[in-house]
Amino acid sequence: MNHGFHDHFSGHAAAYARARPTYPPELFQWLANQTASHDLAWDAGTGNGQAAVALAAHYARVHATDASAAQIAAARPHHSVQYAVEPVERCSLPDTSADLVLIAQALHWLDIPAFHAEVARVLKPDGLYVAVCYGLLTVSPDIDPLLLAFEHGVVGQYWPPERALIDAAYVGIAFPGHVVEAPPLEMALDWTLDALLDYLGSWSAVQRYRTTLGRDPLPDLAQTLRPVWGESLRRVRWPLTVVVRRGVAN
């Protein structure tokens, strides 16, 4: 499944870094509480580096990798984060070196068995493996049906097939190790409509729509949403799927 590097974001790495929502601090605090030591965390498929920087508040060193040089170039600098352009299936970290391996909103793009073999190699025997993802946002009963129609109707056919794993909240993926139950968590931000449109513009399906048809689907959506959204901030929520495993190491 998912062999090779599927690069859907390098062409708009700066926009991706600007528009993507941030994970809640509670996620990283809870993860840190689950590991006995806090020497090294690996943020695999780091993208814009937001998870790597958050991990750096809890781990002495964070190794953050992405196969996209453009994504790494746009990532957030931090003195405790070492960024590297390398595929997650071939990490430069030594064996049994990491207290934590995190992959956030990226597992579905990978050769998953090859990546899991690398996780098993890199993790300490008591280390933690965590996969996080989030799907369609929710705002309110008057907004949500319009966004659902846009996601599935307007740009639905332009989603890469791997997106189905997100829609399934990673159910069906064979995760190694023993289950650790995570608390319910969500991302929540107060956004203007323009901020929402920036985020939607970072979707791989919107990028493929623009490339394929030569036009932008967002102005029509904005025209539909603006009378409903109004000028005020709206609370935007993304429920998080947090898969946690222990006992993965070889």
Describe it:
This protein has 250 residues and is of the alpha/beta class. The protein is 34% helix and 22% strand. The chain has ten helices and eight strands. The protein has helices spanning 13-19, 25-33, 50-55, 69-73, 112-122, 144-154, 163-167, 193-201, 204-213, 218-229, and strands spanning 40-44, 61-66, 81-85, 98-104, 123-134, 178-179, 186-191, 234-246. Strands 1, 2, 3, 4, 5, 6, 7 and 8 form an eight-stranded mixed sheet that branches. Helix 3 (50-55) links the parallel strand 1 and strand 2. The longest helix has 12 residues, at 218-229. Mean pLDDT is 91; it is low at 1-5 and 7-14.
| Tally of distinct domains | 1
Residue share in β-strands? 15-25%
Please work out how many helical segments DSSP would assign: 10
CATH topology: Rossmann fold
Give the helix/strand layout.
Blueprint: H1 13-19, H2 25-33, E1 40-44, H3 50-55, E2 61-66, H4 69-73, E3 81-85, E4 98-104, H5 112-122, E5 123-134, H6 144-154, H7 163-167, E6 178-179, E7 186-191, H8 193-201, H9 204-213, H10 218-229, E8 234-246
Parallel strand pairs: 1-2, 1-4, 2-3, 4-5
Antiparallel strand pairs: 5-8, 6-8, 7-8
